[in-house]
Design brief:
Blueprint lengths: L4 H20 L4 H8 L1 H14 L4 H17 L5 H22 L8 H9 L3 H13 L1 H31 L2 H54 L12
């Protein structure tokens, strides 16, 4: 449920706010679109303040939201405004894709706790695999590549829809496209990257536990490590 809170705040609340402001309070389309994007921006600020650390992805989303709100103040055409929101949001997908070529893919922030289950043994196994397994590193990079591609594709489709679909329809359709893109990324990236990485981490944890247990048995019975006749 905690994982779905950002999706509800960033997608569900803006849609509900738009229709409430436009249909319930008579706001113009442009004003309703602008005010409905305030809550996601505030959530990102609150998330950054509460984490007491700089989360690269959260910071990027905050900047994108801030730019979107600033441009909303000068955009008088609702279609242009919706296209602008999708265009600015595409920066997130592009930056994620660019981060794949670095040692710190942006989506790793959410991937690592899922794979390691937040345990000390899991985190240690993650670090060993990152240092010694090219297959593990490729899966980590591919995870971010899939997410970046899904988000960028969603933005392109939404830009096209902004100029071809009625605004009142595109408000909820845009949310549907976002949810579809997220679910597609979860299924594809989870099956091809997260699940194999989780199995590799689990196997590494079990192997390390067996190594430690073997060392403890050897310490308890020194003859186990001796090559004399009693060890044969």
């Amino acid at each position: 449920m905690k994982s779905f809170v950002p999706l509800i705040v960033d997608a569900g609340i803006p849609v509900a706010s738009y229709y409430l402001l436009s249909d319930g309070f008579g706001f113009s389309t442009v004003a309703a679109l602008g005010w409905s994007s305030v809550v996601p921006a505030l959530r990102t600020v609150w998330s950054l303040a509460g984490s007491r650390s700089v989360n690269g992805l959260a910071l990027l989303i905050l900047v994108v939201n801030a730019v979107g709100l600033a441009l909303s103040a000068v955009a008088g055409d609702p279609r242009l405004m919706m296209a602008k929101d999708s265009g600015v949001s595409s920066v997130v997908g592009i930056v994620i894709l660019l981060s794949v070529r670095t040692n710190r893919p942006l989506m790793t922030t959410g991937l690592k706790p899922w794979v390691t289950k937040g345990s000390a043994a899991g985190n240690a196994a993650w670090d060993r695999l990152m240092a010694g397994s090219e297959r593990f590193r490729r899966a980590e990079r591919r995870f971010s590549a899939i997410w970046g591609t899904a988000l960028l594709t969603e933005c392109v489709v939404k830009v096209i829809g902004a100029f071809t679909v009625p605004v009142h329809t595109m408000v909820w359709l845009g949310t549907v496209l976002t949810v579809v893109a997220i679910l597609a990324a979860i299924v594809i990236a989870g099956g091809s990257c997260a699940d194999p990485m989780e199995k590799m981490v689990r196997a590494e944890v079990e192997a390390e536990a067996e190594t430690v247990a073997g060392a403890e048995r050897t310490t308890a019975d020194p003859r186990r490590g001796n090559t004399g006749w009693w060890g044969t």
